[in-house]
Backbone:
């Protein structure tokens, strides 16, 4: 049966490369920090210093650049994710503020509508006077409770 097997070509043969020692990695790291791209002379010099083939040095540099790029992308992604979370939280806060302001506006509209209805009571006479005074008090109370319409209860100043 072995006669039917294809002979292994050089492409399929595996070479067992030795791992780099910590000292070799430190030397590569320090050279990489100085210059992340290798020219042929530095590659040959480094390979001689480390006692490894120049191709192994080139591959280490290529892998190191790829790792740095991935780390940079991950850091950028995390920063954007944090920024998105902050924007979503701010949006929720603003939506709550809009709802609060709409409720205040509806309350003021109700008081104004009631005030406009009571002003038509002038034709009837003094019986409307006490209800008109109550409406004025309600309107004033609504305005007082609003205090500064451009500052929210949590102290956020819209124009500050």
Residues:
């Amino acid at each position: 049966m072995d006669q039917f097997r294809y002979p292994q070509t050089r492409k399929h043969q595996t070479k067992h490369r030795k791992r780099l020692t910590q000292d070799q990695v430190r030397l590569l790291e320090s050279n990489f920090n100085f210059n992340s791209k290798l020219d042929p002379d530095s590659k040959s010099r480094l390979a001689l210093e480390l006692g490894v083939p120049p191709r192994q040095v080139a591959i280490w540099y290529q892998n190191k650049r790829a790792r740095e790029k991935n780390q940079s992308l991950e850091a950028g992604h995390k920063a954007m994710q944090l920024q998105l979370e902050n924007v979503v939280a701010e949006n929720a806060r603003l939506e709550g503020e809009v709802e609060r302001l709409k409720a205040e506006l509806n309350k003021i509209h109700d008081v104004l509508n009631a005030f406009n209805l009571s002003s038509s009571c002038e034709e009837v006479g003094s019986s409307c006077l006490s209800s008109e005074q109550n409406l004025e008090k309600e309107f004033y109370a609504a305005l007082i409770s609003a205090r500064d319409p451009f500052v929210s209860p949590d102290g956020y100043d819209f124009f500050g």
